[in-house]
């Protein structure tokens, strides 16, 4: 059953952030635990750790430190919506976050979206305001990320390291 969900997680960034990675809406697990990409089967942190040749950050503080060191900002395209569980395909009645505010407070050179829903919503609602093209990255969600895709994720995500050097 669809429920109205308001995005409660603050964007993670600082003035030195060079890259912004946008998801669609935090998963149920991420909303419960209070940070991004917290489902244990999600491959986001595993993929970024491999890109930067580091250990996978485990705690929220480890994850924040990782992002800060690599000048990565995290947020989501959606501010509120109707959604069933964590299913992007169920999303309706979207209101989007004010991405421009974050861009003005950072050194973000490139925006990336994780997954098709975030990419499509960004292009429809945010791009006309930001005038900053986003690069699509495949979803790291266990719902959309079949086993054996780790190499494809790594190949797609390694562009982030080039920009944050």
Furnish the topology, listing elements before pairings:
Blueprint: E1 3-6, E2 19-23, H1 28-33, H2 44-51, H3 60-69, E3 72-76, E4 78-83, E5 92-96, H4 99-104, E6 110-114, H5 116-130, E7 134-137, H6 150-157, H7 159-164
Give me a quick take on this structure.
The chain is an alpha/beta fold. 36% of the residues lie in helices and 21% in strands.
Tell me the fraction of residues in β-strands, as a range: 15-25%
Please state the average pLDDT score. Answer: 92
Total helical segments: 7
SS class: alpha/beta
Strand order of the largest sheet: 3-2-6-7
Helix % is 25-40%
Q: What does the oligomeric state look like here?
A: single chain
pLDDT < 50 stretches: none
Shape: globular
| Rg on CA atoms, Å | 15 Å
**How many E-type strands?**
7
Written as H for each helix and E for each strand, in order along the chain, the element string is EEHHHEEEHEHEHH
Specify the biggest β-sheet: 4 strands, parallel
């Amino acid at each position: 059953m669809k429920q109205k969900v308001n995005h409660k997680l603050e964007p993670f960034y600082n003035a030195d952030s060079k890259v912004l990675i946008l998801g669609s809406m935090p998963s149920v697990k991420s909303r419960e635990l209070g940070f991004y990409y917290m489902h244990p089967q999600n491959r986001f942190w595993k993929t970024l750790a491999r890109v930067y040749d580091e250990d996978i950050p485990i705690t929220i503080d480890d994850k924040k430190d990782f992002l800060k060191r690599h000048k990565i900002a995290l947020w989501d395209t959606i501010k509120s919506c109707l959604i069933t569980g964590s299913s992007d395909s169920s999303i309706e009645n979207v209101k989007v976050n004010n991405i421009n505010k974050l861009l003005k407070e950072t050194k973000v050179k490139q925006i990336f979206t994780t997954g098709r829903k975030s990419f499509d919503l960004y292009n429809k609602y945010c791009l006309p305001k930001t005038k900053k093209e986003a690069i699509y990255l495949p979803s790291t969600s266990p719902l959309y990320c079949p086993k054996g895709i780790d190499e494809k994720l790594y190949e797609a995500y390694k562009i982030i390291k080039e920009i944050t050097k």
